[in-house]
Structure formats: structure tokens, C-alpha cells
């Protein structure tokens, strides 16, 4: 779960100096499209392409915004297959300003592959707000480091949540192949393996800190490290996660 | 070890099921907080009219993190 720490920025105008791409204002409210292909294609189709069977809600959010998140999820899905490895995964878009949850993954305790993605449009419905909030979180080291681009800030929350979907899917596959430990034990072992790679291969010497939020529990640490690794993070832990994912066959 | 496992009267063990540990009514708030951190949270979609009623029920039984 990506949570708000209470701050709620007003966003602003941005230029993606890293990619050089022009950010196109998609309409009122300070929203920007970050991708080139957000056209009139239906959101159900876009999320269907990512592997979801249904999108609930989001009717009051601009297609360009939700479509951008679907594009990022599709890119991740092509590499890791966590959505298609789930059982009838859905996306729920809610507008809950009072909730601290920005995004989350829900799973059935008896079957973690039965999982659903939650996006709170109160935080994620505007790309510029999402970017500004994430920039602040990164600056305060609440969330893990990445390449600093506006895209990475905008996609941080959905990428983090995809990390949860991935460890749930990987655990379920391991269990189907005979693994007898719990979900938590599987994630903790993965984190230990990734940390070992970071120390031995990338010479991480001291604390293996990923972010403040990563200290919450092993699943958050996995998701934070995953987000950093997929968004251009250059730390030993981000590199170790990429190396570990290759070892796992991705 | 999570705090909620500190006292055996606070939880029950379900060896072949998930979640393996379930809190009892005797668990204090500190144990509940620890359990929530360990396993995740519940969300309530009962009033969400964008979601079909049968799906709301399923979503309410999920653990969110």
C-alpha cells in the first residue's frame, strides 16, 4: 500500500528534462498526459491489455490519467506477468480524500493470487499532483530512489503496487511447485537473497536501507525495492533486485 | 518475532491455512496494531455503487497492503 503522510500538494506545471518529452496538458485541473498513445481508446480495453478483467469506477477521472497508469502496468506485465498470473484481477478506482491509502493491492489470505488493484483518484487522479506528492516523498526518503524523472514520480505508486502483485504471484507459483512456507516467509527469503546480492555483487556495506516505508514489513520492502529497480534506481539494492529478477527467469 | 505472538492467549494457529495466525478477543490493541502491520488491512466497499454487490462482498474479505 502506498500511503499519504498527510501532505497534499497542489501540483504544478512540469517539464520532463530527463526524457525531453513534452508533457501535454490534458485539460483542466493541472493534469498532464505522460505518454504518446493516450487517445480515445477505452479504459476497459487498456486495462484489459494489461491483464485485468474489469475496471470499476474512475468515471470522473480523465482517461489520459488512468490510461497512463494502464500503460505502465502493461509495460511491467510484459516483463513479469503478475497480473495474468492472478485470478480474475480487477482494478477499483475510488475517490476517497479522507483515506490515507493512495494505492493498494488486496488479496485473499487463502489464495494470494486472487488479488485486486486499488487506486485512489483523490491522489492519483491528477498526474501533476501525483508527481508533486511523490517528489516530496522521495526527497524525504519516505519512498525509494529512482531516476528522478517526472514519469517515474507519476508511476511510482502503480509500480510499487505491481511489486506486491508480483510477490503474491511468485509466492503462489512457488507454493504450487511444493513450497511449504507462508507468504511472509517467502517474501522475507526473497529480501534476504536480494540483500545478499547487494552486498556481494554491488558492495553495499552498511545498512541496506531502501526507504523509510520499506521498514514497515517485508512485503513493503520488496515493493519499494521493486519500484526503485523498475524506475531507474541506481542504488545497490535496486541493481540487486534487477539481478535477482533475472535469476528468477524474468 | 511480531509483537502479537508474545502471548499465546492472543492468537490461534492454523497450520494448513492462511493466515496462519488469527487473533483472539484477548489480544490488546498493541497486538492488534502489530497484527495489522504484519498482515495488512481490511477495506469496506459496501457503499461503493460502482462495484456490483456480489463483488463488494468479495472485496471486503480481502487483505489490503
What is the makeup of the main sheet of chain A? 5 strands, mixed
Biggest sheet features of chain B: 2 strands, antiparallel
Biggest sheet of chain B: strands side by side, in what order?
A: 1-2
Structural class of chain B: alpha+beta
Number of strands of chain B: 3
The number of E-state strands of chain A comes to 7
Question: Share of helix among residues of chain B?
Answer: 25-40%
Strand order of the largest sheet of chain A: 1-6-7-5-4
- Strand proportion of chain A, as a percent range, falls in 5-15%
How widely separated are the two ends of chain A?
Answer: 24 Å
Shape of chain A: globular
How many helical stretches of chain B? Answer: 2
Output the structural class of chain A.
Answer: alpha/beta
Which radius of gyration of chain A do the C-alpha atoms yield? 17 Å
Biggest chain-to-chain interface with counts: A-B, 31 and 21 residues
**Uncertain stretches of 5 or more adjacent residues of chain B:** none
> Rough shape of chain B?
elongated
Q: How would you describe what is shown here?
A:
The complex is a heterodimer of chains A (250) and B (65). Chain A is built from eight helices and seven strands, in the order βββαβαβββαααααα. Chain A has helices spanning 43-50, 63-80, 121-124, 127-139, 150-176, 183-202, 218-230, 236-247, and strands spanning 2-3, 24-25, 32-33, 54-57, 90-94, 101-108, 111-120. Chain A has a five-stranded mixed sheet with strand order 1-6-7-5-4. A two-stranded antiparallel ribbon of chain A has the order 2-3. In chain A, helix 5 (150-176) crosses helix 7 (218-230). Helices cover 29% and strands 12% of the residues of chain B. Chain B has helices spanning 29-39, 53-60, and strands at 11-13, 21-23, 63-64. Chain B has a two-stranded antiparallel ribbon with strand order 1-2. Chain B is elongated, with a radius of gyration of 14 Å. The mean pLDDT of chain B is 88. At the A-B interface, strand 5, strand 6 and strand 7 of A face helix 1 and strand 3 of B.
Amino acid at each position: 500500500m502506498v500511503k499519504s503522510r498527510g501532505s497534499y500538494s497542489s501540483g504544478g506545471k512540469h517539464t520532463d528534462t530527463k526524457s525531453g518529452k513534452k508533457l501535454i496538458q490534458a485539460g483542466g485541473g493541472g493534469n498532464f498526459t505522460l505518454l504518446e498513445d493516450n487517445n480515445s481508446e477505452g479504459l476497459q480495453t487498456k486495462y484489459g491489455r494489461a491483464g485485468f478483467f474489469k475496471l470499476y469506477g474512475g468515471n470522473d477521472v480523465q482517461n489520459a490519467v488512468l490510461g497512463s497508469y494502464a500503460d505502465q502496468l502493461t509495460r511491467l506485465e510484459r516483463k513479469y506477468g503478475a497480473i495474468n498470473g492472478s485470478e480474475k484481477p480487477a482494478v477499483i478506482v475510488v475517490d476517497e480524500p479522507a483515506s490515507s491509502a493512495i494505492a493498494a493491492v488486496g488479496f485473499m489470505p487463502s489464495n494470494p493470487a486472487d488479488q485486486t488493484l486499488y487506486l485512489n483518484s483523490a491522489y492519483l487522479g491528477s498526474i501533476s499532483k501525483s508527481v508533486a506528492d511523490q517528489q516530496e516523498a522521495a526527497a524525504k526518503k519516505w519512498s525509494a530512489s529512482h531516476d528522478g524523472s517526472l514519469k517515474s514520480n507519476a508511476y511510482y505508486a502503480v509500480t510499487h503496487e505491481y511489486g506486491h502483485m508480483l510477490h503474491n504471484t511468485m509466492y503462489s507459483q512457488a507454493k504450487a511447485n511444493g513450497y511449504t512456507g507462508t507468504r511472509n516467509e517467502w517474501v522475507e527469503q526473497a529480501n534476504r537473497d536480494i540483500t545478499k546480492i547487494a552486498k556481494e555483487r554491488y558492495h553495499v556495506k552498511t545498512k541496506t536501507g531502501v526507504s523509510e516505508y520499506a521498514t514497515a514489513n517485508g512485503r513493503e520492502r520488496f515493493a519499494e525495492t521493486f519500484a526503485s529497480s523498475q524506475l531507474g534506481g541506481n542504488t545497490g539494492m535496486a541493481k540487486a533486485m534487477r539481478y535477482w529478477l533475472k535469476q528468477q527467469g524474468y | 518475532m511480531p509483537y502479537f505472538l508474545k502471548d499465546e492467549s492472543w492468537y490461534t494457529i492454523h497450520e494448513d491455512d492462511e493466515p496462519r495466525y488469527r487473533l483472539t478477543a484477548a489480544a490488546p490493541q498493541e497486538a492488534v496494531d502489530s497484527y495489522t502491520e504484519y498482515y495488512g488491512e481490511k477495506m469496506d466497499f459496501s457503499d461503493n455503487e460502482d462495484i456490483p454487490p456480489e463483488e463488494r462482498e468479495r472485496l471486503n474479505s480481502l487483505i489490503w497492503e
